[in-house]
Design a protein that fits this description.
Layout: E1 3-7, H1 12-23, E2 27-32, E3 50-54, H2 60-70, E4 74-77, H3 84-89, H4 91-112, E5 117-123, H5 146-165, E6 168-174, E7 177-178, H6 187-199, E8 206-208, E9 214-215, E10 218-219, H7 220-230, E11 239-241, E12 247-248, H8 249-259, E13 264-267, E14 274-277, E15 283-287, H9 305-310, H10 319-339
Parallel strand pairs: 1-2, 1-4, 2-3, 4-5, 5-6, 6-11, 7-10, 8-15
Antiparallel strand pairs: 9-12, 13-14, 14-15
Helix pairs in contact: 1-7, 2-4, 4-5, 6-8, 6-10, 8-10
């Protein structure tokens, strides 16, 4: 039986990865930060199958202890301050977790069990002001946020430990991946939650920022399979994981509303643009300039040819299904809130 240690296990990716590894008969350990009230997040339904260890990415001693307890064969570092917008408000905390935290985890592995295999969650945000379209493993990086900068450090320190200490360490440069378990602070879940509330009459309209931002969106459940595949290869390497398709925020909004029977028609430009329910004439989308980033990332489009060829990885959930799954799930959640009187 293999043993895996997952940081960030209560998040979206951590929960899907834990499910995948349990299906493959792994013994799964998960790192949690100690809080006054224990919050299992997205692994509440499988918490009895996971061994939890209290540790913190900013405390290398606690990570060394986690490695000693778990004796993990595979370590998946998914812990991060992962909300891009927050990284401008908390740049130091973002760097401590997303950059130095990676070094702490690598040091813990090197100290306790250097033969363990390590996966680092890198991100398409490292490409930022893109230098080529599409982006692949050899495309130069140009991060446009404290989050992207911190993640770039984490990416390169992983490469450095692989080359310096001969560790099996690799990075997955994952493009945007969403799911029903995504936090509501992320634009995709903000959209699907709002669509559900507007449909059920408990919210008036949705406010967004840059509607023309283009992203390469996939489903987290598909992407965690790529993480696992990376650690099963003979030689460690880095891979772009993406759908090879790009969509605007506007397209995401249109599909989400369409799923609940609302056709959105657009009028105006820039901050004056609005989306109107074609049937009722009611404004359901408006622009709030406060949601624009200080430095915008206009387009991300990944080329996953290397992963598809070398790992045999492929995406199974198409974009439209991703959006529809999220909306359907949020409809159920909002209906439950209405039923118990929380709205």
């Amino acid at each position: 039986m293999k043993t895996a240690l997952i940081t960030g296990i209560t998040g979206q990716d951590g929960s899907y990865l834990a499910e995948l590894l349990l299906e493959k008969d792994y013994q799964v350990y998960g790192i949690m930060r100690r809080k006054s009230v224990t919050d299992y997040g997205n692994v509440e339904h499988i918490k009895d199958k996971i061994h939890f260890i209290y540790a913190d990415m900013t405390d290398v001693i606690s990570l060394i202890n986690a490695m000693r307890i778990s004796q993990a064969d595979e370590v998946y570092n998914l812990a991060a301050q992962s909300f891009v917008g927050t990284s401008w408000e908390q740049p130091i905390a973002t760097a401590e977790i997303d950059a130095i935290g990676v070094t702490n985890m690598l040091e813990a592995i090197r100290t306790v069990k250097p033969e363990a295999r390590f996966y680092q969650a890198s991100t398409s945000e490292m490409f930022g002001l893109v230098q080529a379209i599409p982006q692949k493993e050899t495309t130069p990086f140009y991060p446009r946020s404290p989050y992207g900068v911190a993640k770039l450090y984490g990416h390169w320190i992983t490469v450095n430990y692989r080359e310096s200490y001969d560790l099996y360490a690799c990075s997955g440069i994952l493009f945007n991946h969403e799911s029903e378990r995504r936090g509501k602070e992320f634009v995709t879940r903000k959209i699907t939650d709002a669509v559900a509330r507007i449909k059920l009459g408990v919210q008036d309209h949705l406010e967004l920022g840059n509607m023309d931002s283009k992203r390469d969106w996939g489903h987290s459940k598909d992407y965690v399979k790529a993480m696992w595949l990376m650690l099963q290869q003979d030689v460690p390497d880095d891979y772009v994981i993406a759908t090879n398709e790009t969509r605007t925020v506007r397209e995401f909004v249109e599909i989400a509303f369409s799923h609940v029977g609302i056709t959105v028609e657009w009028s105006g430009t820039g901050v004056n643009e609005i989306g109107v329910d074609k049937e009722t004439g009611k404004t359901v989308v408006s622009i709030n300039e406060n949601f624009f980033r200080p430095a915008e990332v206009e387009i991300l489009l990944g080329d996953a040819t290397k992963a598809e060829t070398a790992l045999g990885w492929k995406r199974e959930i198409p974009f439209s299904s991703l959006v529809e799954r999220m909306v359907t799930n949020d409809l159920k959640l909002v209906e439950q809130e209405i039923k118990v009187g929380n709205l």
